[in-house]
DNA-binding transcriptional regulator, PadR family
Amino acid sequence: MAVLGALSVAPMTGYAVREAIRDVLGHFWSESFGQIYPTLAALEERELVRRADRAAPYELTARGEVRLRELLAEPAQRVPPRNGLMLRLFFGRQLGPDACRQLLLDAKAEAEEQLARLAAVRAVVAAEDGPDTPYALITLSAGEHTARAALAWAEESLAALLGSSESDAALSRADRPGAAQSGEES
Amino acid sequence: MAVLGALSVAPMTGYAVREAIRDVLGHFWSESFGQIYPTLAALEERELVRRADRAAPYELTARGEVRLRELLAEPAQRVPPRNGLMLRLFFGRQLGPDACRQLLLDAKAEAEEQLARLAAVRAVVAAEDGPDTPYALITLSAGEHTARAALAWAEESLAALLGSSESDAALSRADRPGAAQSGEES
DNA sequence: CCGGGCATGTAACGCGTTACATGATTCG
DNA sequence: CGAATCATGTAACGCGTTACATGCCCGG
């Protein structure tokens, strides 16, 4: 779907498809390098893409356009979530408050970098003003909302982690003198 | 890491590990069913988990605890993004504004459901108040921030999509009378 | 003329999912 | 006693990533 979509914008070589996916769709999609050419070969065999002659860029056929619209209309299957950062924070007691704070600082920095990248992309996209621009802005906005949410979350969580533990060990020890049971038996 | 982490909370059967991952870590982690038992077998062979006897629940060994902390301390490798919704919206012109609006409505509804689910989880977690509670709240908060961001984005994008096109075809046609070039050649 | 980017592949390997298979226990 | 749930596995298959391999072309 991504390859057909890239070729729907303009004919291009496989190499350019890869760069387009990385540079344009990069903030929400990725294709591994060794995936592009087998995909293009399969698409060519099914006559969804064509090369005018050998060494010409790939271009979409009429059937390819139809197929792209079919694929886009299919419901997006949700991918099972796998967030390593959250897993580490959830078991943060094993890791210690210091390491958790570092994870949150890293996440915050990454969100800020992402916002900067997206701002740069936005400047480029906003200057184009083609028929695809509104849609590009929608996906861009999603990235920005997500990054801002991550930023706010990281700051809020850093504050929470500092506030509830003055020393590093406070979270590891029981801070309720009268309570000896730890939640281990639930 | 997820399996060791689950067992670090309490000894349990493989079946219970699966349910714990689904129910407790579900909003940021998942393990396929057929993954649990091979993993437990491998962990048992490496003496990171043990069963008191056959048909007893698995429990973490001392080495298993050490290994868990090692794994948690490893840097989280980022997964290449693959967001099917964004891909569809990016090529939204092929799909048509109506279908895009439906995608956004679905995304909005899903974000609202997610917020409701997380609110229910929050009620349970907040009532516990164990040593792991602050960390559980951090991951929970991340889910809430993300869901609220998705909700706001969907509403904002729906408004943008309605505002810029009074009829369904407006986005497909050129709305700038004097401009014939389309961005296809970039 | 030589190094780096353009361009096109391939092959191995691993991981994870899906589906299948089986028995025990519990509850109505 | 039958159905549903608990519980433990296995095997096939596919997908995708990583790494490797090769040649062209252009600019310094």
User: Anything to note?
Assistant: The mean pLDDT of chain A is 89.
